[in-house]
Specification:
The complex is a heterodimer. By secondary structure, chain A is mainly alpha-helical. Chain A is 71% helix and 0% strand. Chain A has helices at 10-27, 35-42, 63-70, 75-100, 107-111, 113-132, 141-167, 170-173, 176-186, 189-200, 206-234, 236-239, 245-253, 256-266, 276-285, 288-312, 318-321. In chain B, 59% of the residues lie in helices and 0% in strands. The chains are: A mainly alpha, B mainly alpha. The interface between A and B is large, with 39 and 32 residues.
Chain lengths: 325, 76
């Protein structure tokens, strides 16, 4: 496979290959009334003109390629799997925006939830089609079925996690166990799935596949907690009254006035408009951000431990390690 | 992976000035007072080495959680 542009890093090169894989899938769509453009819009970052948009490849979408190569496979075999992960992530983001209904810039905000639902469904179907392309890359039928099964199983868990997140009461949400359970089902399932399929495309060693699956899960958990900390620092999660790990720590470990203020803002229905600066200061002051950072570090360490184990049996882990630095 | 001991440790460090000073001077002497796993101890020490006691003025905070760091960085 050759490239027209001149990407310099491994990530840039592989991202370009994933983009091309997706472009081929998009070309197979009927272009009735801008349908193709809307599907592409879901795969791009916001931009003023459609022609300026390029498909934005998420880091997780490169995991199947990285893991496949790490175990000695060839990245080309895993390209359709990476495209599938990218398409599934984009579908998930469109569905999330429909459920959250809080962004005028989202597909559902701009074109309505009916159109957005149809686009998200199309992305899911394209992801399934991407997996069938594995056969053309020399992947055995039984492994194509295994990839399909793994993707469907892990995304069914993600849907269950999303359901739990949507239906939980604020009181129930103030529990670290519940938070970790939802994060594991909902957020960690994507990198877990990406690593799992990357490994199974390169090896029949089930123990190795399992280790990479656990690596992906821990990577996903660390990433989710990092995302929570970002949401607090930026203030976006405070404005949305989102109960994340730092908030759970603060709600369960503070007392008196600080706790009352947090409860009034996040747990009990109130007209109180959250003051992001004040809440952020409070979370830093009581060590909530520090606690969440240690928890993130813990998951990173678990992931690093797995990499040490797979390295000892011959896997190349340097590129995967970069995720954890 | 919920950890009561980890919560207690952080609460003590951030809620008690004497413990905070002791932790900054000799982290191990404070860690030994809590029933932490080896992994938790390592995570506490790694976090301390990278960020110190995390507050809004931590110099490494932006590098660790900024929009262009780690998992959020877009691939050109």
């Amino acid at each position: 496979m050759t490239l027209n542009c001149h990407p310099t890093t491994w990530e840039e090169r592989q991202s370009e290959f994933v983009r091309r894989e997706i472009e081929v899938l998009l070309a197979s769509l009927s272009d009735s009334v801008g349908f193709n453009d809307l599907v592409k819009e879901a795969l791009t970052k916001n931009s003023s003109s459609l022609s300026a948009r390029t498909i934005y490849v998420r880091q997780w979408a490169l995991l199947p390629l990285m893991v496949c190569e790490s175990v000695g496979g060839h990245y080309e075999q895993a390209l359709p799997a990476s495209a599938a992960i990218q398409l599934l992530m984009a579908a998930g983001e469109v569905f999330d925006d429909i459920e959250d209904a809080d962004s005028s810039e989202s597909l559902s905000g701009k074109y309505g939830s009916a159109v957005a639902t149809n686009i998200a469904t199309t992305l899911l179907i394209l992801a399934e089609r991407a997996i069938t392309l594995l056969k053309g890359r020399g992947v055995a039928d039984c492994n194509v079925v295994r990839v399909m099964d793994a993707v469907n199983s892990l995304y069914a868990i993600a849907c269950a996690g999303q359901h739990l997140d949507l239906t939980i009461t604020p009181e129930m949400a103030v529990s670290e166990d519940t938070y970790l359970r939802i994060a594991c089902m909902k957020s960690a399932s994507t990198p877990e799935c990406a690593c799992h399929i990357g490994a199974l495309l390169a090896t029949e060693n089930q123990e190795l596949i399992d280790k990479f699956t656990i690596f992906g899960r821990n990577l996903g958990m660390a990433s989710q907690i990092a995302n929570d900390i970002q949401g607090i620092i930026r203030g976006s999660d405070i404005v949305k009254r989102k109960i994340t790990l730092p908030m759970i720590y603060a709600l369960t470990q503070t007392e008196g006035e600080a706790r009352n203020q947090l409860k009034l803002t996040f747990v009990e229905p109130s007209e109180l408009v959250p003051d992001p600066r004040r809440i952020t200061d409070l979370l830093f002051h009581y060590g909530a951000i520090h606690y969440a950072t240690i928890k993130m570090e813990l998951y990173k360490q678990h992931a690093l431990d797995i990499l040490s184990e797979v390295k000892s049996v011959g896997a190349s882990v340097e590129r995967l390690k970069l995720f954890l630095e | 992976m919920k950890s009561q001991a980890l919560q207690e440790l952080v609460k003590k460090i951030f809620g008690d000035e004497e413990t905070k000073h002791q932790f900054l001077k000799d982290p191990d002497s404070v860690l030994s007072q809590f029933s932490l796993t080896e992994q938790e101890k390592k995570a506490v020490l790694n976090t301390h080495a990278k960020l110190g006691l995390v507050n809004s003025d931590s110099p490494q905070l932006e590098a660790t959680f900024g929009p262009t760091s780690g998992w959020w960085a877009p691939i050109p």
